[in-house]
Specification:
heterotrimer; A alpha/beta (261); B mainly alpha (292); C mainly alpha (338); A: 261 residues; Rossmann fold; 2 domains; six-stranded mixed β-sheet; four-stranded antiparallel β-sheet; B: 292 residues; 70% helix; elongated
Chain lengths: 261, 292, 338
């Protein structure tokens, strides 16, 4: 049984269907890429997994299972148990993802306390440990978000997921807003999560080169549908769908685990 | 759910759908259209067209609303309904000219300030800031009080108070577009500045401009009626709504209809255009798009 | 941050200077001769010439502007034509009454506007939201002078509930004399424990305050709604939702702090607007404030007085804007970055 199983997911705004997904799976210790252009439905899919699609005014139908448990139709209080506890999310613009009025540590610690970290000092312990594993000083918790760089904030987001001990991490274009040099660090950290913590990662991106470098499996999305889904080396070497071929042709050079194309 | 085309809809169909979904725009638009129609067809709609002018009827002074005079008659016997109907020609015309001239003056200044930047920008914006340091009604009052009272003075006075808003609006738009890299490349390619302004900057500025204009119509009408109420605007026998309220003041305690109907006309007109503007702002606001 | 603030203060001073020049120019556009206006149309030429010298009208324009500036800063704002008293002392008498009115109106506007705006945002697009939105548009579309008359008709004529003119009942004032500290009857009555006067002045204050409150209430409700919805749509709010916080926590703990900033801005701006709106309302309620003074000045074409009022309110507006800038920096740390 996969960690995350999406089956027949349909998301609509009013009459307009924006996602029509037959199948998508993410396993433990696996990174699955969800690639596609803007407007293809990637972000709404992630919202649906968190049960937040209705906050944006959308209707959701179908099945999303986390370790066999059906998420669609679950009441809000049950969903809140899952958010932050079993599923975590990192956002595209780390500078915007942190509330500017609060020090970074405040939200971090409050989230930990919300999900049963015990006493304040225990939460602080866990937060400090998590920060160290993303190679940041725990002192950064006292800073405001606008005092930190995008790369640092993104690593703190990963640290939060670590500290909360999540099983599934949804990364919505986490490197799109970062410099190429910093990108590498974040990708390395994500690999680390997969190797050492066996976390399953759903990696959203419009950048096929990054997806190819990082992900074990890749799903190509177009206009709300998954047009191709399979192991990355297979999809890249032998794309079945015309759209996939178009996307690949647009990327100058892809290196997948040492095999270049 | 049925099988639906998943490609992104065109911008115009998106806007049209939002218009249908938005009751504010529909209601406001309807009222605005009604006012304009009433203004155009005034001679046909008013039962006593002469009363909108200088006719007086000493024998039918201060009559309450009745079948022959739906809104009653005023202190010189004129039919109030006819005067209210003809009044629809006064306020919107003022609003039209105020906005026209404000745009004619404000937009070029704003374009110049935003596009050229530097000293020109500073100079224009400092002057604009001084004008914007006054609430619009105040500035209009100050100017109207030094000019001989008439509709023209009102129009002029309000225009002086209003043009800076357009300068600031356009300047913001122009500055943000001018800063974009593709405009730089246009310049590098040698494309003339005028061309850049007309083909790139203006189209982007149109949307907030439309919203601002529709909201301003209501504002100008309220300001104009306030000026007339204070005696600085239209003079008798012009059937200006604000003037009618002012004239009816002394009779108000016993002859309520002199004040009620013209004031109601002001309210409904301003309400209609404000709803329209508000609704348009909702529809055209780019921030409303959702990340898919 | 200090550099940003100094910049704003310098800018404000510059704008006020520009305002002074502009008001001077407005006053000088008057068709006709101010000296004649002062002495009266039948005065002999010698007297008019003397008045002209007195008023400094025979000097070149730039000297006149200089003298005017000097006058503004030393407290000589000219002499009112219709009261024959210094404009500044007229203002000093009239301002407290208007202040009382505008402050009361703003309190009412905030008390109505903020809860309705929050409600509107919480029940977005539902009937309550639509109703509040129409209500707030109604507030900003209201011709105040008309609303004042209607209110008088309904509450005084028909229902006999509220008094119609003045700040308080002169009979009550005679029986229970009021010591003046601030010039605002409600506050003076409160601090001196003069309960009959408190009741009288409060009951006289309600109607005009509610009328003046219509516009700011509409603006505030709309601003609160927009600000809350904007904040709720931002990424950092999605992040705390994704962390599992309840909607109530998200709203109260994380979103609200940021939502207040634009609302505070709007309240300060609306203060000056409301001050001008009193012009339309005070003469109807016989309220002895700035608006009544301005309306009387307009009716008698009293240019120095009109100029003085204009200058005063413009300064209030600029100061209010400055206060807003300062508070914004304190409330929203993001501004520090700019």
């Amino acid at each position: 049984m996969s960690l995350l199983e999406i089956c027949g997911l349909r998301i609509a705004f009013g009459e307009r269907l924006v996602v029509d997904m037959d199948r998508l799976e993410v396993d433990r210790a696996q990174i699955v890429g969800l690639a596609g252009e803007s407007g293809s439905g990637k972000s709404m899919t992630t919202m649906a997994v968190l049960g937040l699609a209705d906050t944006m005014g959308a209707r959701v139908e179908g099945s999303i299972r986390l370790d066999g448990q059906e998420l669609i139709g679950l009441p809000q209080h049950a969903l809140r148990e899952i958010r932050g506890r079993r599923v975590a999310m990192i956002f595209q613009s780390p500078g915007l993802a942190f509330n500017p009025v609060f020090r970074v540590g405040k939200i971090f610690l409050q989230a930990l306390e919300l999900h049963g970290a015990g006493s304040r000092s225990e939460a602080e312990e866990r937060a400090a440990a998590a920060l160290r594993s993303v190679y940041l000083s725990p002192e950064l918790l006292n800073r405001y978000p606008w005092q930190l760089s995008g790369g640092q904030l993104q690593r703190i987001s990963i640290a939060i997921a670590l500290a909360l001990r999540c099983d599934l991490l949804i990364a919505d274009e986490p490197t799109s807003a970062l410099d190429v040099t910093v990108q590498g660090d974040v990708l390395e950290l994500l690999r680390g999560l997969r190797e050492e913590r066996e976390i399953g990662i759903l990696f959203i991106s419009h950048d096929l080169a990054v997806v190819a470098e990082l992900c074990d499996q890749v799903a190509i999305m177009r206009s709300g549908r998954v047009v191709e889904f399979g192991p990355t080396d297979q999809v890249i070497a032998d794309p079945q769908d015309a759209y996939t071929r178009e996307l690949l042709a647009a990327v100058p050079k892809i290196v997948y685990r040492g095999v270049s194309r | 759910m049925t099988e639906t085309v998943l490609s992104a809809p065109s911008r115009s169909s998106l806007i049209w759908r939002r218009v249908r979904e938005n009751p504010l725009v529909a209601a406001g638009g309807a009222v605005a259209v009604v006012i304009v129609v009433v203004a155009i067809l005034a001679p046909l709609l008013a039962p006593y067209p002469a009363d909108a002018g200088s006719a007086t009827h000493p024998l039918s002074v201060l009559l309450p609303p009745s079948a022959s005079h739906w809104f009653g008659t005023d202190q010189v016997g004129r039919d109030i309904f006819s005067r209210v109907v003809y009044g629809a020609r006064v306020s919107p015309v003022i609003a039209f000219f105020v906005i026209l001239i404000s745009c004619a003056v404000g937009i070029p200044l704003g374009l110049a300030a935003g596009f050229f930047g530097g000293f020109i920008d500073e100079a224009i914006m400092r002057v604009t800031d001084v004008f914007l340091a006054f609430p619009a009604l105040l500035l209009a009052l100050a100017f109207a009080s030094v000019l001989p009272p008439s509709l023209t003075s009102t129009t002029l006075a309000i225009t002086i108070a209003w043009w800076p808003w357009y300068t600031r609006l356009i300047r913001g738009q122009a500055a943000s577009v001018a800063a974009r890299p593709y405009v730089e490349s246009c310049r590098a390619l040698g494309i003339s500045r005028m061309r850049i302004i007309f083909r790139h900057i203006l189209p982007n500025a149109v949307t907030p401009l439309i919203v601002q204009i529709s909201l301003d119509v209501g504002g100008v009408i309220l300001t104009a009626s306030a000026l007339s109420f204070l005696g600085l605007g239209a003079q008798d026998p012009t059937p200006d709504w604000g003037l009618m309220v002012s004239q009816g003041q002394s009779y108000f305690t016993t002859q309520w209809w002199l004040v009620t109907f013209p004031g109601l006309a002001i309210l409904i007109t301003a309400l209609g255009f404000n709803m329209l503007g508000d609704g348009l702002r909702d529809i055209l606001d780019p921030r409303r798009t959702v990340r898919i | 941050m200090t550099r940003y603030l100094t910049q704003r203060v310098l800018l404000a001073i510059g704008v006020v200077a520009g305002v002074v020049v502009l008001t001077f120019l407005i006053a000088r556009i008057v068709p006709g001769d101010p000296a004649v206006a002062w002495s009266g149309p039948h005065a002999p030429a010698s007297e008019i010439a003397q008045v002209r010298r007195q008023l400094g009208l025979d000097r070149p324009v730039w000297v006149q502007i200089g003298k005017y500036f000097e006058g503004v800063f030393t407290g000589n704002w000219g002499t009112s034509i219709h009261t024959h008293r210094p404009v500044l002392s007229d203002l000093r008498k009239a301002v407290p009454a208007s202040l009382e009115l505008v402050i009361a109106a703003l309190l009412i506007a905030v008390a109505i506007g903020v809860p309705l705006g929050l409600l509107s945002a919480a029940k977005r697009d539902r009937p309550v939201d639509q109703a509040v939105r129409v209500g707030s548009i109604l507030g900003v579309s209201m011709p105040l002078f008309w609303m004042a008359l209607i209110f008088q008709m309904v509450f005084f004529q028909k229902l006999h509930v509220l008094p119609v003119t003045g700040e308080y009942d002169p009979n009550v004032a005679f029986a229970h004399p009021l010591r003046t500290y601030t010039g605002m009857p409600v506050i003076d009555a409160l601090i001196t424990g003069n309960w009959p006067m408190l009741e009288s002045s409060l009951s006289h204050l309600i109607m005009p305050a509610v009328v003046v409150a219509a516009y700011p209430a509409g603006v505030i409700a709309r601003m609160v709604r927009a600000s809350v919805l904007d904040t709720l749509g931002e990424t950092h709010v999605q992040m705390v939702r994704a962390l599992g916080f309840s909607e109530r926590s998200v709203f109260a703990r994380f979103a609200m702090k940021l939502a207040w900033s634009p609302v505070a801005t709007v309240i300060a701006l609306v203060f000056a607007y409301s001050l001008v709106n009193t012009f339309l309302v005070e003469s109807i309620f016989d309220w002895p404030g700035l608006g009544n003074y301005a309306a009387a000045s307009i009716a008698s074409l009293d240019t120095p007085a009109i100029t003085g009022v204009t200058l005063f309110i413009a300064i209030v507006y600029v100061v209010a804007n400055l206060a807003v800038d300062v508070t914004q920096v304190l409330l929203d740390p993001r501004i520090k970055l700019q």
